[in-house]
Predict the 3D structure of the following.
Amino acid sequence: MEALLETEVAGLKLRNPLVLASGILGNNPSLLKRVEQAGAGALTTKTILPEPTRGYDNPVVVELPFGLINAMGLPNPGIKEFERELAEARSEISIPIIGSAGGGTPEEVAYVAGRLQDAGVDAVEINASCPHVKGHGLEIGGTPDSLEELVAVVRRSIRIPLLVKLTPMTSDIRSLGEAAVRAGADGLTAINTLRAMYIDVDAMVPVLSNKVGGLSGPAIRPVAVRSVYELAPISDVIGTGGVESWRDAAEMLLAGAKAVGVGTAIMTRGLEVFGEILNGLSNYLERKNLSVRELIGRGRDT
């Protein structure tokens, strides 16, 4: 059964293709251990910045029938405190840990990435696409030129696998992926959230304190699938966005993803969603007489 589910992405060997997406859970070691116990093949930390940040004031999340809009503001303990937390988690967790690195400049992101490497992560994911924090993410990695510069600076600071999380808010996501790969990325994560807003018609004001947030959940899955389909020929891809069931995971793999990120579904359904997806995916693979490795990209054979 386990052999059916094994995969590899950006040089990381995974017991199964499910990856905890960045930004969903905190970095508490016991909580990250629960992600492993729930069945994930790898986990991604929340985005870590050079210094502690408290994020935005409440309300920071709006739940809608088709997903969530959130504007957390990248709350995090800063890299120095996180190193202590990571050391504790690393001693207890056997699946790959991907450290998400952020910052306001390429040099800040590289600094965090280097510290994450030294603290024991197995790979670094650059958050080059956060849609709602001024001076971070999308603002420093939203175009091919800026992304290529960002990735090149970070690549020089680490030796471990480097992933880049891409924005869907572009007319040509393949060009972004090609820029990242040229600069030394080993893999891509597609996609981050889409910039969105929700206005309370009774109060007649935007609900989020930041007004604008990032849309995640089922509404963005078709965008994520299309993005994976376009990016898979140029790089290993972790397909992320609206995955809630084994069918969603299978669709990402068929589009060419080597692994599948799970995020918003954890907030709405709990960590049990990992086991539910894995059970359904295993049954599907047995019916089709295929392994995950054999399923990857099969939807492209047309």
